[in-house]
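TA notes, week 10

Several of you asked for a full example with nothing omitted. So below is the full record: structure tokens for the whole chain, then the designed sequence directly under it. When grading your own attempts, check the secondary structure regions first.
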């Protein structure tokens, strides 16, 4: 991976492997460290030391109170106070890999090329170079706090290193020109640059409210800036799985109804 200038965060190389269920392989030089959420670890070479740290490791020189404040902010996004650090304590290059939690894509974010800050969904972060700050971003407008389907607290990734987020289904980028507005389901927004203005808008009309099926509110994004969009939010995936596993599956048998379920092994 080409480096454009000196970074204050650790400089890590990486490779993303796979199609529908991806993992990211990070190459660490001696003494380099990657940080990750608990549960994302997949495998690592001998010579990589795994250590639980308080917060994200970016507040190591801020004293006890600085570390406590940095880590405590993560509780507001539903994350643990602790993260896991993977450090190469050997002589040569070593590799550590992190897997995506559900079908989708891993998005590499070079924060140095994105003005040092990206806002993302609160469960999107996967891993990053040590030094990247994983904090919270409060949305300014009242509508966002009261009515946003994904909540008004989002994650904020800051620094000049590499960070990786995960999204569901097909993932694509869209650049919004100054003043351009995109209306989108709140769960389909993976991340956006700090120049994007984010708000929640009410879907007017009683027919939309009762029969629309898409909820009462959606997100509005105003440019300029870049937006990363996913086609399958994890909340939507989970609700489909739950509805599939609880109740009859007559739709699979079509006009056969229960006979269809009987033939495929479901004798209820």
């Amino acid at each position: 991976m080409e480096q454009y200038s000196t970074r204050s965060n650790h400089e890590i190389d990486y490779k993303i492997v796979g199609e529908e269920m991806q993992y990211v392989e990070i190459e660490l030089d001696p003494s380099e460290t990657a940080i990750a959420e608990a549960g994302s670890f997949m495998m690592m070479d001998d010579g990589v030391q795994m250590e639980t740290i308080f917060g994200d490791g970016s507040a190591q020189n801020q004293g006890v109170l600085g570390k406590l404040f940095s880590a405590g902010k993560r509780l507001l996004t539903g994350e643990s106070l602790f993260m896991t650090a993977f450090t190469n304590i050997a002589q040569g290059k070593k590799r550590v890999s992190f897997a995506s939690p559900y079908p989708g894509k891993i998005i590499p974010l070079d924060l140095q090329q994105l003005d040092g800050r990206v806002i993302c969904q609160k469960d999107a972060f996967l891993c990053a170079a040590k030094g990247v700050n994983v904090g919270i971003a409060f949305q300014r407008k009242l509508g966002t706090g009261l009515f946003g389907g994904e909540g008004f607290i989002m994650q904020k990734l800051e620094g000049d290193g590499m960070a990786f987020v995960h999204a569901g289904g097909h993932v694509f980028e869209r650049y919004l020109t100054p003043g351009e507005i995109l209306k989108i389901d709140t769960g389909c927004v993976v991340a956006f640059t700090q120049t994007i203005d984010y708000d929640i808008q009410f879907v007017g009309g009683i027919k939309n409210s009762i029969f629309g099926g898409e909820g009462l509110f959606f997100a509005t994004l105003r440019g300029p800036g870049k937006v990363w969009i996913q086609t399958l939010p994890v909340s939507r995936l989970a609700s489909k799985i739950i509805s599939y596993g609880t109740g009859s599956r007559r739709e699979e048998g079509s006009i056969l109804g229960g006979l269809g379920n009987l033939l495929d092994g479901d004798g209820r």
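The radius of gyration is 21 Å. Use that as a sanity check on your answer.
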